[in-house]
Amino acid sequence: MSDYKWYVIQSKPGQAQRAANELENQGFETFLPIIKVEKLVRGTRTLREEPLFPGYVFIELSELSSNWRPIRSTRGVARLITFGDKPAVVPDDVIEQIRDSVKQQAEISSLEPNQPVIIQDGPFSHLNAVFMEYDGDKRAFLLLELLGKWQRLSVPLSAIRKA
């Protein structure tokens, strides 16, 4: 079993991407989950990429073989998150869940009108539908054929996936 574990680094304000890049340049394995967020900029809706956890970067280190000293002096890094005097460990399954949800969000945020989708949750689970448009940042309008007629319904984005 590997002695590598995931830890959390707090970055300096607005420098999470820089911290991740600098750490990777030094040979460390990092994970900075990025999601697309719809923002209103000068009255226009635009998609922007932002860190899921602003100000934090995950780093995979070994207590035995990793050199921890350069982390503190890395550009963009403020500190390693600790509980008392021990670095805070993030379980591997939590990192995997974050990766899965970021991947799913990326797929959902790239839906195009008239694209087939599958409803995963709710009363219409396992039914095919057609994506029409986003209904805010957490829901979508779909067309679903029921009893020979097309019905328009709004469902949470988390309940659909690409067909």
Summarize the entry for a quick read:
With 163 residues, the chain is of the alpha+beta class. Helices cover 20% and strands 47% of the residues. It starts with a strand and ends with a strand.
Question: What is the element layout, followed by pairings?
Answer:
Layout lengths: L3 E8 L4 H10 L3 E3 L2 E8 L2 E8 L4 E7 L6 H4 L4 E4 L1 E2 L2 E2 L1 E2 L1 H18 L5 E5 L8 E8 L3 E8 L2 E8 L3 E3 L1
Antiparallel strand pairs: 1-5, 1-6, 1-9, 2-5, 3-4, 7-8, 10-11, 10-14, 11-12, 12-13
Organism: Marinobacterium alkalitolerans
InterPro entries: NGN-like_dom, NGN_dom_sf, NusG-like, Transcription_antiterm_RfaH, Translation_prot_SH3-like_sf
Keywords: Transcription, Transcription antitermination, Transcription regulation
Commentary on this structure:
The protein is an alpha+beta fold and 163 residues long. The chain is built from three helices and 14 strands. It has helices at 16-25, 69-72, 92-109, and strands at 4-11, 29-31, 34-41, 44-51, 56-62, 77-80, 82-83, 86-87, 89-90, 115-119, 128-135, 139-146, 149-156, 160-162. The strands form four sheets. Strands 1, 2, 5, 6 and 9 form a five-stranded antiparallel beta sheet that branches. It has a five-stranded antiparallel beta sheet with strand order 13-12-11-10-14. The protein has a two-stranded antiparallel sheet with strand order 3-4. It starts with a strand and ends with a strand.
